[in-house]
Specification:
By secondary structure, the protein is of the alpha/beta class. It folds into 2 domains: 63 residues, no CATH class; 39 residues, no CATH class. A 3-stranded parallel sheet has the order 1-2-3, with helices on one face. The termini are far apart.
Length: 121
């Protein structure tokens, strides 16, 4: 990569080598980064639970880093798409079907769903 290049990451923090990224910023090999996600998000939510996240805390102190709150995708079209896709998943369940695999946030819920909720009163 050319010295002074910029990296933009709006997908997942793990697609970049975070320690190498921090090193490249500190040594000015990179001109800067713009990120919408950091390593471990959104799974661990450590920043929300503990009030600190070492990666976030490092990035936020660096002058050549722009961080957005995992909302860089936001546009009129993307918000409309999210609403439409969510409604389609709900419709599928109400019609006796299943949400797409990617829509299952908690895998243990699927097992309970498939068992017909025997544990509920």
């Amino acid at each position: 990569m050319r010295k002074g290049a910029y990296i933009i990451n709006v997908c997942r923090g793990e697609v970049v080598d975070t320690p190498a990224l921090i090193s490249a910023l500190r040594t000015h090999k990179l001109g800067g980064i713009a990120i919408d996600v950091i390593e471990g998000e959104p799974r661990q939510n450590s920043y929300l639970r503990s009030g600190s996240n070492p990666v976030f805390d490092t990035f936020r102190k660096m002058p050549d880093v722009l961080i957005t709150p995992h909302s860089a995708f936001t546009s009129t079209r993307s918000v409309s798409d999210v609403k439409r896709k969510g409604a389609a998943e709900i419709k599928s369940v109400l019609e006796g079907g299943f949400p797409r695999e990617i829509a299952w946030i908690n895998p243990e819920v699927k097992k309970i769903y498939l068992q017909g909720f025997p544990h509920l009163p």
